[in-house]
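Morning, I've got a small favour to ask if you have a moment. It would help a lot if you went through both lines with me. Thanks so much in advance, here it is.

***
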Amino acid sequence: MEILFYRYNSICEPDILQVFTGFGITVHVEDLEMHNKNVSPRECAGKVADWILQKPLAFVFSINFFPAISYTCEKLKVPYVCWSVDSPVPELFSNALKNSYNRIFLFDRAQYEFFSPVNPDCIHYLPLASNVKRWEEIVLGMTEADFETYGGDVAFVGSLYTEKCKYDRLSLSDHTRGFVDGLMEAQMGVFGCNFISESLTEEVIHEIANADPDFYKSDDVYTDMSRYLAAHQYIGMKLAAVERARTLTFLSERFRVNLYTRSDASALPKANCRGGVSTLTEMPKVFHASKINLNITMRPIETGLSLRIWDVLACGGFLITNYQAEIPEYFEIGKDLEAYESMEELAEKVHYYLTHEEERVEIAIHGYETTAKYHTYQMRLAEMIQILTEGSES
């Protein structure tokens, strides 16, 4: 079997490429977009078409959805397989989503339930996973110096989203600002359910859309996506920034917190900001050496589990995460990981597990074992290929 892997430098790509190759699949790679982020849809389509015309491809694969690839595969009658690992993904509103040669896999069940009615036979749900063996090689090679360098009581690795927040750059009325602030405050008190989108008024959506000249506009959409974008790409990103700043401030005033980020952390003076870390070499050492790893899922991921959850557990790290509705489907809270639904509960659990090392280590080990047994990329991609095979036989 030969496939084309269209890459744009997603963190997941090397792991998935390795698994496909391990399955005995011949993988051709188109990496134009890894070196040129300004690739036009026409250039993308042209590159993919050239590959399809030259090789007997079983399918074209990408992380996240590229309408240009979908249209090209539809025209040339080759399946287009993609796995969404982000949210929001505005490209999912393209008319290309309706193409019959699509085989789209979405990691967030709420995202799946939102988009699957558009093309129910071609859109599937598939949660994320981790490359346990790769993390094992790094963790097992850690030295005492590594534990000294990367260890600590509480660690958070990730963006603060301040640099990604388009909402802060909008010129909005005091009424709209007040409405959105109140909505965000209400949402921050509720975990496992996202109600921002359904709570927005048409007036607020219209004002946000008109305030940004770069608001995502396209003639190639099957429905108006203004509500979705206002809720997820603008307010959702703002909420992520506010929630992360508030949570890290709260924790750093009570515990020793190591913050690994390339974002501006000047507003968090009590956190020990240590800058960014290399995803492939340093991050797993932080996860394994830290007593407690914190995950704060950005709200546009409504019910699903972010990649950070799978990776912390795959590294044998102890994890406390905000509650997500899909967690109980894959892990047992209190046995594989811990979850919180309020700042008070988070503080109580951090204090408890910092003072109960044996329980903490036992949970970290069990979380690792569960991930290694059930949630590797090999297992997810085998499931994906089984769905593809069943679909081709029907």
Summary: Residues 159 and 261 are 6 Å apart (CA to CA). Residues 132-167+236-374 form a domain with the Rossmann fold fold (CATH 3.40.50.2000). The radius of gyration is 22 Å. DSSP finds 17 helices and twelve strands in the chain.
